[in-house]
Write a structure and sequence with these properties.
alpha/beta, Metallo-beta-lactamase, Chain A, five-stranded mixed sheet, 13 strands, elongated
């Protein structure tokens, strides 16, 4: 049975202003990312026996109705092992159980996919994967310096590519019927942005806003703060890899062996 997608209006910056809640199965069903209580989600929940509730990650636009549906359905609430406090702060309730890579929950199995957020997971259900904010059908996923990790994000995308599912069910937007093409596009986008950030630093940009202006050739009205955070995350990745010097405020180009690494 395919996952049932229920778009829920939220304050997200995603293009359609909704977050997808999903229901998996009918008996011992799993409710994923109940972002808010709505009539549509109420009706969907009454059509099955929800026994488990979880979120792909604890961002505000994914967690708003966890407490309500957990109580209404008398369901087991799950959270990422080691991230229980983060989950409780976001949802207002404590989890009943925890999961990690490979944990079976109802009809799905957990796949850890950090990058967009440190607690981010996907859920594998047969030949489908519920991907949270790992992928989107159009545009790109924000991976900001506040809690994102571009190295981890790219690794998660590559793991998803290797799994080669038939369909992806993202946290925002429509179902994706061409998973590998989508994953390839997102990887290419990140690597292209990284190349522009590195070129900006090598071209003499040192302040974050200067790198940002050089790395983007489009109007950033309304999303400049997100783009700025993304550039900072790219600079952090480039610093880890020894390609730039970066202290959180200033960037400078660096020879790849400047840290004393052996060629």
């Amino acid at each position: 049975m395919d996952p049932k997608r229920v778009p829920v209006p939220t304050g997200t910056l995603a293009p359609d202003g909704t977050t997808n809640a999903y229901l998996l199965g009918r008996e011992q069903a799993l409710l994923v990312d109940p972002a808010a209580r709505t009539d549509d989600l109420d009706r969907a929940v009454t059509d099955c026996a929800v026994e488990h509730v979880l979120v792909t990650h604890a961002h505000p636009d994914h967690v708003g109705a966890v407490a309500h549906y957990a109580d209404a359905c008398d369901a087991t609430v799950w959270a990422r092992a080691g991230r229980e406090d983060r989950f409780e702060r976001a949802t207002g309730i404590s989890p009943d159980r925890t999961f990690r890579e490979g944990t079976p929950i109802g009809p799905a199995t957990v796949m850890e996919t950090p990058g967009h957020a440190p607690d981010h997971v996907a859920l594998v259900a047969g030949d489908a994967v519920l991907t949270g904010d790992l992928v989107v059908s159009e545009g790109s996923v924000v991976v900001g310096a506040d809690e994102g990790d571009i190295r981890a994000y790219l690794t998660s995308l590559r793991r998803l590519y290797a799994r080669n599912p038939a369909r992806l069910y993202p946290g925002h937007g429509p179902v994706i019927d061409h998973p590998r093409a989508t994953v390839e596009r997102l990887i290419r986008h990140r690597l292209d942005r990284e190349a522009k950030v590195l070129a900006a630093v090598r071209g003499g940009a040192t302040e974050l806003d200067g790198v940002l202006d050089s790395a983007y050739d489009k109007d950033l009205s309304g999303v400049r703060d997100l783009a700025r955070s993304t550039v900072a995350a790219h600079l952090q990745k480039l610093w880890v890899e020894g390609k730039v010097a970066w202290d959180g405020e200033r960037a400078e180009p660096r020879h790849p062996f400047a840290r004393g690494d052996e060629p």
